[in-house]
Design the sequence.
């Protein structure tokens, strides 16, 4: 393997390197004079070093042909590309850049999409996200910008309750201390490290804090123990950065910090063994409506009471998911944008993250996390509009057969007709047709469109929520996806109409497939 800049810097003292090259030439070669100080060492990634350096040092439009050539020669595969991109993203941004962490959250969903595509199109979702990753890395400073460095554990890390100590360090925005407290997790199991993060993850109402934690856990699983700590450490930095922003803007602390101890005590949730009871469809829908209507404190109390009453966390999570879906289906009439950072997409992604984290976490964190999820839904003001699709939307659908309804839905997407897309998929589901064909039709538009950084996540959210929602309600998730997909078609990140996702059409040309 050719020597990379990273290997070179390991083998040659950085101060000697900069002195020998001169600062101007060093900058031209992509070396930062920041390496000349006596600060923490640069990270190394073993088998991924060369790819990480390539992704950090190459402009997005020049990177795509190189990656396609490597794939065609069998020098790499899509899983390896996602793993290297996750490391390049982590080292560059450290969880502190808006586009950077959104791109990281899209990586695992993009890789999972490849399994549903024909072989010649499988690289498309990965190449799309890697283009976005490389583009933002160059904006951020390219190969010379390294936010994450080696971190050693501090003696203070041997505290009795490290999770609370870590949370408190994040509350102070003390990023160095927080990282030192988390540093022993480099030698711990991934699950232990993930549980240690939970008090900090549940300490604020921020959709990105929740979803980033869940998606980085997935990337850590993909990369394995050797790199899991590097990936998860971003969550610590995210929390500290978010707190510093709050302090800088003189904003109050999140009310959830005072509310959660009260609810834990009032409903005796601390130490509670999760129940297994399922009260049935009607009760689940009633709970979903209560959570949707809010206000936020009442929604959190409803979830806490249900858990205290022995209702299964899986069922409570399902009700919260249905409440989030109502945010998508009730979000006012066209042409109101329902894709991107809309209330419905944000809260659906957040709830999906909490449901998955509840399945992974210790019982105490599973219970408190679901209460936070319910609170988060009702932070958004509930919409009073009629549920999509309305009777008028349904009346516009003339097709009755399977292929006809799919064709109507696809045409509606291409014309940004959210109501007609929702109605076609609702009728399709009511007629008992397979959901797989719907996912296949909507997937290609998730890949081809920008989606304001949220398309990949939301598609994966709906895929997972459809599988884990009871038959009486699950098609609501796909109806929501149809609406959001129709909203997103043709819009770029700045809500200007008339373009596909950056890099998508170039990737199609390189792969010799239709755009």
Sequence:
């Amino acid at each position: 393997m050719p020597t990379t800049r990273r290997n070179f810097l390991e083998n040659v003292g950085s101060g000697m390197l900069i002195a020998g090259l001169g600062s101007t030439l060093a900058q031209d070669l992509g070396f930062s004079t920041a390496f000349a100080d006596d600060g923490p060492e640069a990270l190394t990634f073993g088998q991924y070093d060369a790819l990480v350096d390539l992704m950090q040092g190459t402009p997005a439009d020049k990177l795509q042909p190189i990656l396609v050539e490597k794939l065609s020669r069998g020098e790499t595969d899509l899983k390896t590309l996602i793993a290297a991109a996750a490391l390049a993203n982590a080292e560059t941004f450290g969880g502190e850049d808006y586009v950077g962490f959104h791109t990281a959250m899209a990586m695992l969903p993009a890789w999972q999409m490849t399994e549903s595509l024909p072989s010649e199109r499988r690289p498309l979702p990965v190449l799309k996200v890697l283009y976005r990753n490389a583009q933002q890395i160059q904006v951020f400073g390219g190969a010379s910008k390294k936010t994450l460095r080696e971190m050693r554990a501090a003696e203070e890390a041997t505290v009795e309750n490290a999770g609370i100590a870590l949370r408190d360090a994040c509350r102070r925005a003390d990023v160095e201390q927080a990282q030192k407290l988390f540093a022993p997790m480099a030698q711990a199991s991934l699950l232990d490290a993930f549980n240690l993060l939970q008090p900090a993850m549940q300490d604020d109402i921020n959709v990105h804090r929740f979803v980033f934690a869940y998606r980085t856990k997935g990337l850590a699983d993909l990369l394995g123990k050797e790199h899991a700590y590097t990936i998860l450490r971003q969550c610590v930095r995210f929390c500290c950065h978010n707190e510093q922003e709050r302090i800088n803007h003189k904003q109050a602390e999140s009310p959830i910090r005072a509310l959660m101890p009260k609810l834990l005590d009032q409903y005796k949730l601390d130490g509670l063994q999760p129940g297994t009871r399922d009260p049935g469809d009607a009760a689940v829908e009633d709970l979903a409506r209560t959570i949707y209507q809010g206000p936020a404190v009442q929604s959190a109390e409803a979830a806490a009471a249900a858990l205290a009453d022995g209702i299964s966390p899986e069922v409570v999570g399902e009700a919260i998911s249905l409440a989030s879906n109502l945010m998508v289906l009730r979000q006012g009439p066209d042409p109101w944008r329902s894709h991107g950072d809309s209330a419905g997409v944000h809260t659906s992604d957040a709830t999906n993250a909490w449901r998955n984290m509840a399945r992974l976490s210790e019982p105490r964190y599973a219970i408190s996390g679901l209460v936070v999820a319910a609170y988060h839904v009702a932070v958004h003001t509930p919409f009073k509009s009629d549920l999509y699709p309305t009777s008028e939307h349904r009346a516009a659908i003339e097709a009755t057969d399977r292929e006809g309804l799919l064709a109507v839905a696809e045409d509606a997407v291409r014309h940004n007709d959210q109501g007609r897309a929702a109605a076609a998929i609702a009728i399709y589901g009511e007629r008992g047709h397979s959901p797989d064909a719907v996912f296949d039709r909507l997937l290609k538009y998730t890949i081809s469109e920008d989606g304001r950084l949220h398309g990949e996540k939301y598609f994966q959210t709906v895929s997972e929520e459809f599988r884990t929602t009871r038959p009486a309600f699950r098609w609501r998730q796909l109806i929501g996806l149809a609406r959001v997909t129709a909203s997103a078609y043709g819009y770029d990140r700045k809500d200007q109409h008339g373009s596909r996702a950056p890099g998508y059409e170039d990737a199609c040309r390189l792969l010799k497939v239709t755009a």
Remarks:
- Residues 5-144 form one domain.
